[in-house]
Specification:
Blueprint lengths: L2 H32 L4 H30 L6 H30 L22 H5 L3 H33 L6 H26 L24 H31 L4
Helix pairs in contact: 1-2, 3-6, 3-7, 5-6, 5-7
Protein name: Ciliary neurotrophic factor
InterPro entries: 4_helix_cytokine-like_core, Ciliary_neurotrophic_fac_CNTF, PRF/CT
Keywords: Cytokine, Secreted
Amino acid sequence: MNSYSGHLWHECIVTVQTVQLSGKTKQHGYAKAKLANHKETAVHYSSKMTVWKQALILLCCGLIFVDSAPSPVPPRNKYNNSFRLTRSARSRVQQLLKKYKEEQLGSKHFEDRSRQLKDLPLISTDFYSWINLTDWERLHAALMDMQAYWNKLEWKRKQLEKEENENMAVRTTLPQSIRHIQLDLRDLMSQVTSQMSYMKSSWMRPASLMAQRPLSPEPSSKTIWDRRVEGYIILRDLDLYLTKLARDFLLLASKTHV
């Protein structure tokens, strides 16, 4: 029992004692004035006071039980937490993208919207198709899309580490920064699987979510520049995707009661 519950129980006992004392005082005065003519009324009054004491004790026990019981986290709060983590991850991606363009492509202003990677999820979507998705479909799609980006980041991180080791180049913080983003995606995937389990208790989280898809092989025909641009495309599209994912969580939160 916590301090609040103990205080509540003390207040209830004092209240019961006060009611009991008040009842006795009133009974005494009432009996002294008209004891001979109103014995039946005094007995009835005492019976009513006993009922009140029992009711107060039951009420106190109920309040203490409610106060002591753990309160589950509402689903809306879960979606809001996921929204905040998504925004934080997107901010981290934007910072890394700027740094990546400076170190790998020579300019933080580098832009190339013409190139795409076939293994990445599509960013553009039809509004009516998006708005009409069920909550389950929305969460499942988010889980699969984040998995795809996690795999691409893993491939790129290992590629950078391999190049640094082979060329004896000065080690950069890019692989470590990519790893931090992967951790954000991992936490988001964990939250999404928890939300899916909340919706369908029979649904089982994959035993090894991170190893579901093999890493993309590196074509030997690609130039160093092409490989560097691929890293830019991954971060560029991930930035856009996290914007879309944040809207998903806002929509889910708006449809959920607290």
